[in-house]
Each structure stands twice: as structure tokens, then as C-alpha cells.
Design goal:
The complex is a heterodimer of chains A (500) and B (488).
Chain A (H helix, E strand, L loop, with lengths): L8 H17 L7 H26 L5 E10 L3 E10 H20 L7 H20 L3 H10 L1 H11 L4 H31 L4 E2 L2 H7 L5 H18 L8 H8 L2 H26 L1 H28 L3 H21 L3 H32 L10 H4 L1 H14 L6 H17 L8 H22 L18 H19 L2 H8 L8
Parallel strand pairs in A: 2-3
Antiparallel strand pairs in A: 1-2
Helix pairs in contact in A: 1-2, 1-4, 2-3, 2-4, 3-4, 3-11, 3-14, 3-19, 3-20, 4-5, 4-6, 4-11, 5-7, 6-7, 7-8, 7-9, 7-10, 9-11, 9-12, 10-13, 11-13, 11-14, 12-13, 12-18, 13-14, 13-17, 13-18, 14-16, 14-17, 14-19, 14-20, 16-18, 16-19, 17-19
Chain B lengths: L5 H8 L3 H17 L3 H24 L4 E3 L3 E3 L1 H20 L12 H18 L3 H19 L6 H32 L4 H10 L4 H18 L7 H8 L2 H27 L1 H6 L4 H22 L4 H16 L2 H4 L2 H30 L12 H4 L1 H15 L5 H12 L7 H26 L13 H19 L2 H15 L2
Classes of the chains: A mainly alpha (500), B mainly alpha (488).
Chain lengths: 500, 488
């Protein structure tokens, strides 16, 4: 396909959503043009990503593409507009493009300042795409911070009753963590510069820091890890997440949990492991403990929740802990399945948050204790909810099972032959807890006797755009659950220095 | 026969050519001002722009020269002249509608121009007396400017406060200067450098340091000499506040750099040892930024919040002194330029709204995004830039300045303090953004903003974004300036 070789895909994937955001912002506030702008531009972005994936798959070096332009070149500081895409980036970009399209369809009935709403969603896509492509720390940090601003406005403009508190907490929490990361970036660049101009390129820094002593590696690894951990989020840096999710509009929640949390784990793999292999070894046991705590704590917290959306938010903490567990094995299989879990969780959590949004909107409340017997009133909705919950608890045949199976297997392999083999029980126990809280929540909300605590006479089932958007994601969950090889083939090509 | 050689004369005055343009304009302004206030403002803006043109050409030409052995023009003086002239044009532009002053006072623009000349003289001064003349020229004009809202008691109160603290600070630093003269026997800066390098730390040396530090500390609003800043900034007419915040303060920094970086630390910079003063400045920088930010959090008036944030920004720029490398100096200059546009822009927005009857409290800004969408968006850019959110110029400035402090490892804690402060500052800037965008206002009437405000806001907003995305040329320029300053 020589036809596609000259297309600057990477730049287009930033430009198309950016243009969409500008167009959407200038559509009329009260007519529903903005949603069409958002749907068309995000569909074009998704199509471009797919063509790009095809081009990359058939290239001589599969799944590797890089390009760089000089941006700032002075005696003091050298920064390039450097983009780089490998299998992991591509997967995350595809997930971003997909979920942005899905939420644009799902939220098409949004009528409150729709132009700004859809512009923010597309602006968010620019930032996310940028984070997954950036190959210069300056650029990476810019995109990293740029994603914050649309999300802040999505929560504080379209969120629930305590939205202002949640938005500002989200913003400051993650901003502070990013600043710690920024100090580490300064330190890396200063160390790598060795008296010459500061250079922030990923490759240049990695090369210059290759011989760094273990102590410095561990220190810098720790600072970067803190920045990424608050984003993922890992216990104890997770407290912003339940607030942000409970208050955010559905579209915000889907993007937040679906792709924004993955920025954290992406950063750990792309930067921490790749640049500081020795630091990673020093932190390995700590990472495993943090991961296990997050997995168990997240799952336990889920059982106690009465708000359906808060439960899903805590389940995200548990599942992202699973990602870290895979990463912490520092084995090629562990990291591969961690990436797979990032992808899988992105799909599943999107369905879960859309389901929660629907309950809140259609039944008027998300309190599990007030719900009951919804399956009779909303059969299609109940089917989607069941599918989403089962996928999330790791039902074999769906995508979540493959990921969690792989991660727990890699953890077992890592522990085999050591005296700590019992630790694998914690990971396995989480599966039990997860199954428990999901089934229990389902039992209380959609099955059983029809509730008399809320007025169900006006409750209606899923609308067409909502059904389409959830249907697309559910189909993909089943597809990749049955044929995980499609995704694994992409992940296999990823090269990370700290991984054996 | 006595003849007048015009070429020789031009060569003689060329180092102060931009200053002369402003002086002539200042003399003409009252004459025009008696006819039309608007014309004077436009005239002064044009005068500032032509002086910018001349300065830029001289820098492009690579010109260096000295006037009367007192004032020299080099890349540093040129760069700072460009900065002050930009400040003058922004201030003149936002003074066009003149709602806060009595009508037809052309002397207002004369005072602005003369104060700018004073600031520019400070940057090119080679010896302490000419430095002092520049400082006094700028200060005395500023006292009068603060009192320009003649029938507002707050303005008069601010002016008196400013006059008294200003007088005290003058007394302190002239005393310090006389001690320096006594120690070294010369007023010439390069002469003092040689003497001080060899001088022992005696009592008189210590007293000179402390009085100079206190005297100039007032000028830049360094904690604990900052108490006048919020009252004066709040009471003065907003264009004058802008002028003080983005102009006068920069002059204070130039003096700081000249006295401390060049005189006291010069020998240490060459040998690479750490001077005790560097520790003093590091601690003062940390305290200044922390006090400014923490007090700013509790402010309800936008103008006072910006005043305290100005104190915090001064703390960031003070990082240059302890770090004291070429890179840090470049970062300091870049930060000053960035500050002109982001802080200046924010004040222009405040003035533009005040001119339409919108109050100065954060609660008055509710629902602004519906009433003046473009102005609110510009304010969002300025505030986010001040908070250091990429890709705006404030981020680049902080990025460069903070990264410079990591070299060598001595000042890592200072970077950590600065970064924490930067995070705190986001909170109070976000409060204003939230009021503008999220809160519902009491009215939805569109605000008609005066054209000259629109121009000033547009200039600042474009600068904040364009320099933010393409900082390369400005970094180069600041690099030249820092080089000319540290290695004359």
C-alpha cells in the first residue's frame, strides 16, 4: 500500500481532533450541530488510526514509526517536536479514538452548552493522542497537562451536585503529582546534559543516563513513579478518583477511566522501566506490595459502596492495581499482559460507566439500595449491565479474563521457586471479591422484586444512540476475548529495556 | 571658528537614543493633552513603538557604546529597554479610556514616559550615581502616578504609603552606596568589582550589604519588605498598578542583579565557590514565594490577589540570585518578559471590566464567560499562564528557571519549594476561572469593551500563546542579554 506511505499520520491524528474541537466550539450553542461535528471528526480520527494500524502492520519494521522536527534550538536548551509510535502507543491511541467516538454518540442528547461540551471532548482527544505519541519530555509533559484542562471543565461544568469540589480536587491532586514528575524530568535532563545544552529527547536522555548509578536511578524512578501513580491511581494516591467519577458526566467518566488512567501505567512502562532498569529492580518488591494493596483495597471498598458509580470507580482502582502487578514482575509476559489489561479495562470500564450514567439518568438514582427489579422495566439495559459486569469480573471468553489470567500467571511464574509463592493467593482472592461485589450489586439492582422506593412509571429503556455506542464496545469486548491474538500480536513487538 | 558636527553629536548620544525619544515625547505630551486625552495616549503609544523600533535596530546592528562614561548600551540594556517600552505601550493603550482619572491631564503620560526613561537608565548605568538617578527618576514619577485618581481617598492613601516606604528605601540604599564608596573609593561598577573581591568581610561591609538588601527589597516587594505592595496596587488606578507590577518591579530586579550578582558575587562566580549571600537569597526567595502564594489564596479582590501573586512571582525570579549561572540569568530575563505579558494582560482585563462597572471582587466575575466571552478566554489564558500550565509562556518561564536551579544539586530544595508553590498558586487562579466559566452570573448583559483595551488584551494574549509555543527566539535573545550582563 504505497498510497498511504506519505501520509503524516501522527500529525494528522493530532490535527484532526484539534480542528474538530475548534469547529465544535464555534457551532451554535443551542442547535445540535456540535454533536455531528464531534461524531464526524472522532470517526475520521478512528478511521485514520485504523488505516495507520494497517500501514504499521504491513511495514518492513512492523509497529514502529517515529518522526521529529526541531522546535526550540538554543545554546541553553534543545527541544524537538518528536513523535514516536510503537505497539503500545498504537493500542492506546486506538482505544482513545474508539472511546471518544463512542462517548460522542452516547452523549448526543447533551443540550447544555453542547458546543463547549463536544469541543472539550475533542480537545481531550488531542491531549491523549499527544501523550501516547510524544517522544520528548517537554512535549510529553505539555500533553500530559493539556489533558487536565478539558477534564476539569467537563467535571465542573456538566457534573453532579458536588462537581466544583471534585473538579478542583482532581485538578490540584494530579497537578501536584505531575510537578513532582517535572522535577524528575529536570533532574534527568540536567544529568544528561553534563554541562552542554539541556536536551529533553527520550532517546537522548536514555542514552546519556545509561551508566547512572543504582541509587540515582532508584531516586528518579521513585519521583516519576509518584507522578504516574497518582494518575493511575494507586493506593494511597487514589482519593481524588471516586470523587471525580461520582461527579463527572458519563462522557467524562468514560474518558477518565478508559484512557486517562492509562496515561499513568503507560508512563511507568515507557519512562520508568525503559530508562531506569536498575531503579525498577530496586523498586520491584515495593511495586508488588502497592499493586496487591490496590487490588485488594479497591475490591473491598467496592463491596461497601451504595452508589453504583462509586463502586465502578473503586473497581477501577482494583483493576489498575492488576496492571501494576503485571508491570512489577518485570518480565516480558507480565508487561505484555499489563498492556493487554490496560486495553481490556479501557473497553470494559467504558460500558460500566455508560451503564451507571443510564441508571442515574433513567431511574433518577444510582443508589443500589433504592433500585431493584429493573430488568423487567429496562430489559436491554439489564442485558448491557450484565454483560459489562460479567466482563469486568473476568468471565472466560471475554477480554477481561485473558488479561487477568495472563497477569496472575506471570505473577505466579515470577514467584515460583521462592518462599513467597503464597502471595499469589492475594491476587486470586481479588477475583473472588470482584465476582462477589458485582454479582451482589446486580442481584440487588436489576433482579429481584421491583422496587417501590422510587417511581418507576416513567422509566424508559436505552435510547438508540446509547444502545449503539454500548453495543459497539460490547462487541469488541467479546471479539478480543475470543481472539486475543489480534492484540497480542501488536503488544509482542514492544521493546522495553527493563524487561527480561 | 566653532562648528557643530552633527555626525559626531549623533554618535555621542546614540547610546541613549531611545531615552531621548521618550524625553521629547514626555515634553510634548502635556501640550497635546490639553486638547485631547485620547490623542495623547495614541501619541505616547506611538512614541514608545518608535523607541522600540530604534532599540531593536540598534540591537540588530550589534551596536554597543557608552554615553559620557555613565550609561552604556549593550544587549542587556537593549533587551531591558525593549521590555520597559513594551510596558509603556501597554500602559498607554489601557489609559486611553481614562475613566479612572480626571480628564485632560497630559502630564499623566509625561510622568509615565519619564518613569520609563528612569527604568531604562537603570539598566544601562555603569556606576552607582547614574544608577541612583535612574531609580529616583522612576520612583518619584511613580509616587505621583499612584495619586492620579485625585478624588479617591484610597488612591491618595496608597500614594502616601508608597512615598513613605519609597523614601525609606531610598535612604537605606543611598546609605549602603555611600558605605560601598567608603570601602572601595570608587563608584564605577567595574572598579568596585575588583575592590570587593579582595575586601575582607568587615562590619561596614556587612552593614552595606544589609542596607542595600533592605532598600532594594522594598522595590521588588521581597518578603519581609512587601507590606506596601497590596495596598498600593489596590489603591492606584489600574493602569498605574500595571505599570508598577510589570515595570517598576523589573527595574528593582535589574538593580538587584547589578548590585548583588555583579558586585558581591562576581569573584565567587568565577571561582565557582558558594557565597554566603547566595544562601541568604535562597531563603528569601523561598519565603517570598511562599508568603505571596499563601496570602493570595484568601483574597477576595482580584486586584489584591494579583498583587500577592506578584509577590510570589518576585520570589520565583529571586531564584536567579542563589543559582547565579548564565542559564539562570537567561531564565530570569525570560521570566521577566513572560511576566510582562501574562500579568500585564490580567491587569488589562481587570481595568477593562472596571471601566464597564464590573467590580474587582472575584464574585463580580461570575458568569463572565457569557457576558464577554473573548475577554474571559483571554483572562483564562493569562491566569493559566501565571499558574504555569503548558503550552503557555508562563510554563516555559518556570520550566527554564526551575530547571536551571537543579544544576549542581545545591538548590534542589529550592526547586521543590518553588514547585509546591506553583501548585498552590493554581488554586487561587482556578478560583477566578471557575467564577468566570462555571458560576452563574446575576445578569447576562453583554459587555462592550473599549477598542484600546481589546488591542492591549489581544497583544498580551497573542504573546502569551506564541512565545509559549515558540520560545526559541526569545530564549536566544535572553541568552545574549545574560551574556552581555554577566560577561561585560
Amino acid at each position: 500500500m504505497d498510497l498511504f506511505n506519505d501520509i503524516p499520520f501522527m500529525v494528522l491524528l493530532l490535527l484532526v481532533p484539534l480542528m474538530g474541537a475548534v469547529f465544535a466550539a464555534f457551532t451554535h450553542r443551542n442547535r445540535n450541530n456540535a454533536k455531528w461535528v464531534a461524531i464526524i471528526f472522532s470517526a475520521v480520527t478512528l478511521a485514520l488510526t485504523m488505516v495507520y494500524a494497517y500501514v504499521m502492520a504491513t511495514a518492513t519494521v512492523p509497529y514502529l514509526d517515529a518522526d521529529s522536527w526541531t522546535w526550540i534550538d538554543t545554546d541553553y536548551i534543545v527541544i524537538s517536536f518528536s513523535l514516536y509510535v510503537d505497539g503500545m502507543s498504537l493500542l492506546m491511541m486506538a482505544l482513545t479514538a474508539l472511546l471518544v467516538l463512542v462517548v460522542s454518540i452516547f452523549s448526543s442528547s447533551e443540550s447544555n452548552s453542547a458546543n463547549t461540551f463536544f469541543a472539550l471532548i475533542l480537545a481531550m482527544e488531542v491531549g491523549l493522542m499527544g501523550v501516547y505519541m510524544a517522544h520528548d519530555y517537554f512535549l510529553f509533559y505539555i500533553f500530559w497537562e493539556v489533558t487536565l484542562i478539558p477534564m476539569y471543565f467537563l467535571i465542573s461544568g456538566w457534573g453532579g451536585p458536588r462537581r466544583h469540589y471534585a473538579a478542583i480536587k482532581f485538578f490540584i491532586y494530579t497537578h501536584v503529582a505531575s510537578l513532582v514528575m517535572l522535577i524528575a524530568i529536570f533532574a534527568m535532563a540536567t544529568e544528561a546534559a553534563a554541562g552542554g545544552p539541556l536536551n529533553f529527547g527520550f532517546d537522548e536522555v536514555k542514552l546519556a543516563l545509561a551508566g547512572m548509578d543504582t541509587f540515582m536511578q532508584a531516586a528518579l524512578f521513585g519521583m516519576l513513579f509518584l507522578g504516574f501513580a497518582a494518575k493511575m491511581p494507586l493506593v494511597p494516591f487514589h482519593t481524588w478518583l471516586p470523587d471525580a467519577h461520582v461527579e463527572a458526566p458519563t462522557a467524562g467518566s468514560v474518558l477518565l477511566a478508559g484512557v486517562m488512567l492509562k496515561m499513568g501505567s503507560y508512563g511507568i512502562i515507557r519512562v520508568c522501566l525503559d530508562v531506569f532498569p536498575e531503579g525498577a529492580k530496586a523498586w520491584q518488591s515495593a511495586m508488588i506490595v502497592i499493586a496487591l494493596v490496590a487490588i485488594i483495597y479497591g475490591a473491598y471498598a467496592c463491596i461497601a459502596q451504595n452508589d453504583l458509580k462509586k463502586m465502578v470507580a473503586f473497581s477501577s482502582i482494583s483493576h489498575m492495581g492488576m496492571v501494576l502487578l503485571g508491570i512489577a514482575t518485570l518480565s516480558s509476559i507480565g508487561v505484555s499482559f499489563a498492556i493487554f489489561q490496560m486495553f481490556a479495562h479501557g473497553l470494559i470500564t467504558a460500558v460500566l460507566f455508560m451503564v451507571c450514567g443510564l441508571v442515574g439518568h433513567n431511574a433518577g438514582t444510582r443508589e443500589i439500595s433504592l433500585l431493584g427489579g429493573l430488568a423487567g422495566k429496562m430489559p436491554i439495559f439489564a442485558a448491557f449491565m450484565m454483560f459489562g459486569f460479567l466482563a469486568s469480573l473476568g468471565l472466560p471468553g471475554l477480554v477481561g479474563f485473558v488479561a487477568e489470567f495472563g497477569i496472575i500467571y506471570s505473577f505466579f511464574e515470577y514467584l515460583q521457586g521462592t518462599e513467597y509463592l503464597w502471595a499469589v493467593m492475594f491476587a486470586l482472592a481479588s477475583l473472588l471479591l470482584t465476582a462477589g461485589y458485582y454479582l451482589w450489586a446486580m442481584q440487588r439492582s436489576i433482579f429481584g422484586r421491583e422496587t417501590d422506593k422510587i417511581d418507576l412509571s416513567h422509566v424508559h429503556d436505552v435510547s438508540k444512540p446509547e444502545g449503539i455506542s454500548m453495543g459497539i464496545v460490547c462487541a469488541l469486548i467479546a471479539l478480543f476475548g475470543l481472539m486475543p491474538g489480534i492484540v497480542m500480536k501488536v503488544i509482542e513487538t514492544v521493546q522495553i529495556a527493563g524487561v527480561v | 571658528m566653532v562648528s557643530f558636527d552633527i555626525t559626531a553629536f549623533i554618535d555621542y548620544v546614540k547610546p541613549i537614543a531611545p531615552h531621548l525619544i521618550l524625553i521629547v515625547a514626555a515634553l510634548l505630551a502635556p501640550a497635546i493633552g490639553s486638547r485631547s486625552e485620547k490623542m495623547t495616549a495614541v501619541f505616547m503609544t506611538l512614541a514608545a513603538l518608535s523607541a522600540i523600533g530604534v532599540t531593536a535596530y540598534m540591537m540588530y546592528d550589534g551596536y554597543t557604546g557608552t554615553f559620557a562614561g555613565m550609561y552604556s548600551f549593550n544587549d542587556f540594556a537593549g533587551l531591558m529597554a525593549l521590555l520597559f517600552l513594551t510596558v509603556l505601550s501597554i500602559t498607554s493603550l489601557m489609559s486611553v479610556p481614562g475613566t479612572e482619572r480626571r480628564r485632560r491631564n497630559g502630564e499623566y503620560f509625561s510622568l509615565l514616559a519619564i518613569a520609563t526613561v528612569g527604568m531604562m537608565l537603570v539598566c544601562s548605568a555603569d556606576e552607582l550615581i547614574s544608577l541612583f538617578i535612574g531609580i529616583e527618576l522612576a520612583s518619584i514619577m511613580s509616587f505621583a502616578l499612584v495619586a492620579m485618581k485625585k478624588n479617591d481617598p484610597r488612591s491618595s492613601e496608597a500614594a502616601v504609603k508608597y512615598l513613605i516606604t519609597g523614601g525609606l528605601s531610598t535612604a537605606l540604599f543611598i546609605y549602603g552606596m555611600s558605605l560601598i564608596y567608603g570601602l572601595t573609593g570608587t563608584l564605577n561598577i567595574s572598579g568596585i568589582i575588583d575592590h570587593l573581591a579582595a575586601a575582607d568581610v568587615t562590619w561596614s561591609y556587612m552593614i552595606a550589604t544589609v542596607t542595600l538588601l533592605a532598600g532594594f527589597g522594598f522595590k521588588i516587594g521581597m518578603v519581609p519588605f512587601h507590606a506596601w505592595v497590596p495596598d498600593v496596587y489596590d489603591g492606584a488606578p489600574t493602569p498605574v498598578t500595571t505599570f508598577l507590577a510589570i515595570g517598576s518591579k523589573k527595574m528593582g530586579f535589574v538593580v538587584f542583579f547589578k548590585i548583588f550578582l555583579m558586585l558581591f558575587m562576581a569573584s565567587h562566580l568565577i571561582t565557582g565557590t558558594t557565597h554566603q549571600l547566595q544562601w541568604v537569597f535562597a531563603i528569601l526567595a523561598a519565603i517570598t514565594m511562599t508568603v505571596g502564594n499563601i496570602v493570595a489564596v484568601s483574597q477576595t479582590s482580584v486586584k489584591r490577589m494579583l498583587a500577592y501573586s506578584s509577590i510570589a512571582q518576585a520570589g520565583y525570579i529571586l531564584i536567579v540570585l542563589p543559582v547565579a549561572t548564565d542559564y539562570a540569568m537567561m531564565g530570569g530575563l525570560f521570566y521577566m518578559i513572560a511576566h510582562v505579558f501574562m500579568k500585564g494582560g490580567a491587569f488589562v482585563v481587570v481595568a477593562a471590566l472596571a471601566a464597564r462597572g464590573v467590580g474587582e471582587n472575584i464574585s463580580d466575575y461570575r458568569g463572565l464567560s457569557k457576558r464577554a466571552p473573548l475577554l474571559a478566554f483571554a483572562m483564562l489564558l493569562f491566569l493559566f499562564s501565571l499558574a504555569g500550565i503548558p503550552p503557555l509562556v508562563g510554563f516555559d518561564a518556570k520550566f527554564i528557571l526551575f530547571s536551571s536551579a537543579l544544576e549542581g544539586g545545591t538548590w534542589t530544595w529550592l526547586v521543590a519549594v518553588a514547585v509546591i508553590n506553583s501548585a498552590i498558586s493554581l488554586y487561587y487562579y482556578a478560583k477566578v476561572v471557575k467564577a468566570m466559566y462555571v458560576d452563574k452570573g446575576t445578569t447576562k448583559d453583554r459587555l462592550k469593551i473599549h477598542f484600546s483595551f481589546k488591542v492591549a488584551v489581544a497583544v498580551c494574549a497573542v504573546a502569551v500563546v506564541v512565545i509559549g509555543v515558540f520560545p526559541g527566539p526569545i530564549i536566544d535573545l535572553c541568552g545574549l542579554g545574560a551574556d552581555a550582563f554577566l560577561h561585560p
